[in-house]
Specification:
alpha/beta
């Protein structure tokens, strides 16, 4: 840990180490409603409509949608190289976890609550789902 980074405890669900810029959503995400070529959210009325999940550490409350639409949506993002680099999920559902496992995208939960107060969109964050920490850089 460097002097400029702040770490927060979390629980890793899908292993891996990654980093990227934070993109926060106050609503659940269905990856089938994200444009596969660009990673841009297309769901009408969604808090992150028009923003791209590509290369982000995606912070959101939960997944939504059936296993077929979640898996196909996330697969298309991975296939086009525009998937999130990691996911921070408040209430991970079985479908979302299974999709992250299959697509090998690090996923963490049970994050120290102060993390949510301290990390804005666009901030660089490292995620270590193996060791159980997030670091704001």
């Amino acid at each position: 840990m460097t002097g400029s980074e702040v770490r927060f405890a979390c629980r890793g669900i899908v292993h891996g180490l990654s980093q990227g810029t934070v993109l926060r959503s106050s609503d659940g995400i269905c990856f089938y409603l994200v444009e596969p070529e660009s990673g841009v959210m297309t769901e009408k009325g969604h808090p992150i409509i028009g923003k791209s999940v590509a290369g982000t550490v995606l912070v959101f409350p939960t997944g939504k949608g059936s296993s077929v639409v979640q898996l196909d949506g996330l697969y298309q993002l991975v296939k086009h190289g525009v998937a999130p680099r990691a996911m921070v999920v408040e209430s991970p559902d079985t479908v979302l976890v299974a999709c992250a496992v299959i697509m090998e995208i690090p996923l963490v939960t049970a994050v120290d609550p102060t993390f949510y107060d301290r990390v804005p969109d666009g901030r660089e964050v490292a995620v270590d789902a193996d060791e159980g920490w997030l670091a704001i850089r």
